[in-house]
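Request from the bench team (R.T.):
"We need a structural guess for the complex before ordering more adenosine-5'-triphosphate. Sequence and SMILES attached. Just send the C-alpha cells back."

Command: build protein-adenosine-5'-triphosphate structure.
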Amino acid sequence: MDLTVSDLSVTLGGRKVLDAVAARLQPGRVTAILGPNGSGKSTLVKALAGLIDLDAGHVRIGGRLVQRIDPRERARTIGYLPQDATVHWNLAVRELVALGRLPHRSPFAGPSAADESAVIAALAATGTLALADRAVDTLSGGERARVQLARVLAGTPDWLLADEPLASLDPAHQLGLLERLRGLAEAGMGVVVVLHDLVQAARAADEVLLLRDGRVIAFAPAREALAHQPLREAFGVEVMVVPDAEGRLLPIPIGRS
Ligand SMILES: Nc1ncnc2c1ncn2[C@@H]1O[C@H](COP(=O)(O)OP(=O)(O)OP(=O)(O)O)[C@@H](O)[C@H]1O
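Reply to R.T.: structure attached below.
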C-alpha cells in the first residue's frame, strides 16, 4: 500500500507551513525527510499520520484517504513516533510497550499470546528487553527513546513514521537503529524517518525528501537528493561527497554556501 501525498498544504498560526507537497512513498523502502529547522518536517509527518487538518490536498494510503480511516484501523496501519515522546504515567517498560497493542485488542479482553509475543519482539528489536521491568521514569533519555520506538513497533504497523528517532541516541545506538529501520523496510514495512544528519540519511535511506520553507526541493533516490545542488538549495551548505566502503556517497558538510 503506497502512501501518497498530493498537493498538500497546511497553515499553522496564520502561516503556510507546507505548500503543495507531493510525493509517493513506497512500502519496503526507507524514506528520509530532511530540511532546515522549521521547514515543515514534523508537520508533514503528522499530516501523513492523519493527525492534522489540511488546507488543501490529500494523503492516501492504498488509495484511501488517511483521515477517513477509522482511528483503530489507522493505528494498526500507521505507527507514529513523535519527536520528544513524553510519558505522563509511571509505567513499567513492559506495560508501556504493551500499550502499542491496544489497536489490536478487543475492548475489555486481556492480552493474547500474539500480543505478548509482539511486545517481546519489539523489546528485542530495540535492545530494551533488559529494561522490561524498569519504571519508565527511571530510564535515561536514550533508553526512553528506544522504549517509545518499541511501543510503536509492538503494534506491527504497515508504516512507521518516526520523527527524529536518533536525536537522543549515542553513535552505537544510532547505527543500530538505522540498521533496524533498514531491516524493517526489507521485511516489507514502509519506513519514513525525519533525520538531521546527512551522512546517516545517505547510509539509511532509499529515497530522500528535502524540504525548505514547506516546499519540496527534491524527492529522489538518496544519491540524487543528497548531492551538491539540492543540499545547497535546501540548507545553504556546501558538502564534500565521500564514498564509503559499500559505494554509497556520503555528503559531509564543509561550509556555508
Ligand atoms: N501549532 C503551531 N502553531 C503555529 N506555528 C506552528 C505550529 N506548529 C508548527 N509551527 C511552525 O511551523 C513551522 C514548521 O514546523 P515543523 O515542526 O513542522 O518544522 P520542522 O522542520 O520539523 O523543524 P525542526 O527541525 O526544528 O524540528 C515552524 O515555523 C513552526 O514554528
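Two things stood out. Residues 12-13, 17, 35, 37-43 surround adenosine-5'-triphosphate (CB under 6 Å). Residues 171-186 form the longest helix (16 residues).
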